[in-house]
Amino acid sequence: MTSAATIESKPTTSTTGEAPGTVVVDAVTKRYGNATAVDGMSLTIEAGEFISLLGPSGCGKTTTLRMIAGFEQPDAGDIRVSGRSVLGVPPYRRDVNTVFQAYALFPHMSVAENVAYGLQQRRTPRSEVRDRVVEALDLVQMRRFADRKPTQLSGGQQQRIALARALVNRPSVLLLDEPLGALDRQLREEMQLELKLLQSRLGITFVFVTHDQGEALSMSDRIAIMRDGRIEQLADADTVYARPASAYVAAFVGQQNFFRGEVAEGGAAVASTHALVRGTAPELAGLANGQAAVRPEFVEIAAARSDASAEVNLARGTLLGVSHLGETMQYLVRLGDDQSLIVRRPTPEAPNLTVGDPVECSWRAESVLLFPADDAASAGGYVAPPTA
Amino acid sequence: MSKRSGAALAIPAWAWLLIFFVAPVAMVIWFSFGYKPGIFGTHANDVLSFDRYAEAMSPTFFATFQNTLWVGIAGTLLCLVVGLPVAYWMAVKASPARRGLLVALVMVPFWTNFLVRTIGWQVILAPEGWLSTTLQQVGLIGGPLDILYTRGAVLLGVVYNYLPLMILPLFVAFDRVGPPLREASKDLGAGKWTTFFRVTLPLARPGVVAGVLLVFIPLMGDYITATVLGGAKGNMVGQLVASQFQTAQNWALGSAMAVLLIIVIMLTVAVGALVVWLVTLPFRSRNRLVIGDAANAAPARPVTTAIAAIRSRPAPADEEVSA
Fold first, then answer.
1. Domain that holds residue A193
2. pLDDT number for residue A292
3. Mean pLDDT within B154-176
4. Could you tell me how many CB contacts below 8 A there are between chain A and chain B?
5. Which residues of chain A have a CB within 8 Å of the CB of B288?
């Protein structure tokens, strides 16, 4: 028997036919004074699902998590865990456990005592406490640190202890509040893989809050992209990346080059100052203004040819800079005073271009995303913040 | 920074300690072995003896010492019992925006002279004072208020005068624990009381110790509060020491009494610490969990190979060469 076998969600009776481990957020609103943190949000999280709540700070993702955990009470709506409403149920009576952002390990207790804390609250017999603590520490491979104090451990080790401390209680739902935020990049990527493996092995519902789209894309069964207390799109990683529901989602997941202008060609294109950007379907039919988005990785770049004529899905400009990102090369191209373009090519096939030279960038119509102009999400920049 | 320059930086602190703490205490101990040479001399040390200590330990002195210890311990415990919830409320429940104001309010009594505000209580508690007359008019008490010059009045004065010294270190300690650890405790199934006794209070222990010492030690030497509000029942050792130095001009005897007071304070603190340690021992051992040395323990159960594979990083190059 592997140590994972006993740390799994325990069956609980349901009153609404929702399976144990299901989390239903039903039209929930949470206000702080005049500010609305969560605005009539609804979300059904299936049992055993790994779901990420993704969004910038202030989008309401942490508030949502804290309401599921019981640290905040919704002003309106209902939250059900395993089919039962948890409204008014204090955190210590909920069948959920949390991995906190800064781990929140008890500094005056040893690692083993930290992990045992939850079991002791449930009046678990001493001998069983010991076995389950060892088991949970084995699960995160931290057994040899059992008698150390948390302060003697590195950030990554503390993170594992926080995970073991939550999982040892065999919750139906595990809530993770940006647990990887404090780790360095390599450790973070390693933990992402481990978390995903743990989750699929234990079958526990994971609700993962993050502002890092890479984290969300790599681990989640589904991603809920949040904006201003609402869910902008709820879909799997492929869909969110390839078919973002709005310009906001497009800008937040990965990077985008946005072109804004009048709608042309019966709704299939946007005529911006620097290029006529055409998509594959007349998605903007009937609209006056629109915006087109192209990801940096879908743009080709080459030295400008002399016989320059106006073409579709092609923009000319001056190469401002080239930076090496490891597996890709990134080019920054200035199209005009008000617009730049980011291009990313795989390093082996990246063209050798000189900074300051005229270049031309082109892309295929299939990689163009068209959005109405009134979606102001991407306002303020031609491109989403660069990935870490 | 080198070790030597680090030590050099500590010189002012050491000098301060030497001049204002070690030297006076050493002088008091030295004087306590001497005697009073005559009517006009305060002390002489040409003949050394323990006679002053024998002289100090008179029945009157013992009775006073007992009273001092009683007031010191009861007053400190009362301050702790009253101060703990107030400090907890200030640090945990009160809105963070109001905390500065609350700390300032706790400090308000310190703006007035210690003696003046104690005499203020004497005026309030007097049998013919306004509190007494008001209570009689309302009909809450039959006769004049009979509290001044009792131990009750002394304790009231002690709590009033020393409470801020208890609240402030407790407040800082509770504040430093922070909300995330309390939330983690509740998340793991602990209610409010368990969270307080297993997380908040143990982590605030330095503040509790600081508060208890800050109240107990000055209180043992204080005689103003006890004399003003306790009258004849408020005899404190501090008063005896002061009268030997100031009135009787017998510095040798006063020093011996002061040394005895210091010893009693240290003993009381040690005994108090031992009692707390013993009382909490069963609770601490109940929650203790030692897994033991991993090398001697049975090997860990096999974990899923997938996770093991991630964990096993490629060996460093130099190891490959040597192998």
1. 23-95+171-242
2. 92
3. 94
4. 113
5. 113
CA–CA separation, B132 vs A63, rounded Å? 55
**A residues 194-213 lying closer than 8 A (beta carbon) to B:** 194, 197-198, 201
Across the interface, whether the CB atoms of A2 and B181 are under 8 A apart is answered: no
pLDDT classification of B316: cutoffs 50, 70, 90 = very low
Q: What is the pLDDT of residue A8?
A: 47
ipTM: 0.82
CB–CB contact A100 B184 (8 Å): yes
Q: Which residues of A touch B190 (CB under 8 A)?
A: 92, 117, 121
Q: Which residues of chain A have pLDDT under 70?
A: 1-16, 306-310, 374-388
pTM of this prediction? 0.81
Highest mean pLDDT among A219-223, B32-36, B114-118, B311-315: A219-223
Residue owning tokens 């090519």: A345
Interface test with B, best of A99, A110, A117 (most B CBs within 10 A): A117
The pLDDT assigned to A5 comes to 45
- Residue B3: the pLDDT is 67
Q: Crossing angle for the helix pair B251-287 and B205-221, nearest 10 degrees?
A: 160
Does residue B279 surpass a pLDDT of 60? Answer: yes
Contacts of A133 in chain B (CB under 8 A): 289, 291
**Chain B contacts of A106, Cβ < 8 Å?**
181, 184-185, 199, 203
Any chain B CB within 8 A of the CB of A107?
yes
- Average pLDDT over every residue of B16-31: 92
Query: Any idea which residue has 């050798």 for tokens?
Result: A352
Superfamily covering domain B63-247: MetI-like (1.10.3720.10)
A337 Cβ partners below 8 Å, 6+ apart? Answer: none
**CB B186 to CB A91 under 8 A?**
yes
**What CATH number does the domain containing A350 carry?**
2.40.50.140
What are B62-66's contacts with CB under 8 Å, separation 24+? B63/B235, B64/B235, B64/B236, B64/B237, B64/B239, B64/B240, B65/B237, B65/B260, B65/B264
Could you tell me if A6 lies within 8 Å of chain B, comparing CB atoms? no
- A298: contact with B, CB 8 A cutoff: no
Chain B positions in Cβ-Cβ contact with residue A201 (cut-off 8 Å): 304
Tell me which DSSP letter residue B215 carries: H
DSSP A223: E
Position with higher pLDDT, B323 vs A161? A161
CB contact under 8 A, B180 and A104: yes
Give the burial string for B3-35 (b: 16+ CB within 10 Å, else e): eeeeeeeeeeeeeeeeeeeeeeeeebeebbbbb
CA–CA distance from A7 to each of A132, A143, B298 (Å)? 9, 16, 20
Collect all residues of chain A within an 8 Å Cβ-Cβ radius of residue B188: 92, 97, 117-118, 121, 165-166, 169
Inside any domain, residue A247: no
Same domain, A265 and A193: no
**Per mean pLDDT, which range of A1-15, A80-94, B14-28, B38-52 is the poorest?**
A1-15
Pair A227, A339 in one domain? no
Are A86 and A180 in a shared domain? yes
Residues A207, A265 share a domain: no
A147 → closest Cβ in B194, B291, B303:
B291
Domain residue spans in chain B? 63-247
Q: What pLDDT, on a 0 to 100 scale, did the predictor assign at position B305?
A: 42
Least Cα distance to A98 among A204, A253, A237, A233 occurs for: A204
Number of domains into which chain A is organized? 2
**In the prediction, which pLDDT does B204 show?**
95
Q: Are residues A263 and A326 in the same domain?
A: yes
Does residue A216 sit in the same domain as residue A178? yes
Domain boundary (A208, A242, A276) is at: A242
Tens of pLDDT, residue by residue over B203-239, are: 999 999 999 999 999 999 888 888 888 887 678 888 8
Residues A222, A356, single domain; the answer is: no
Residue A35 belongs to domain with CATH number = 3.40.50.300
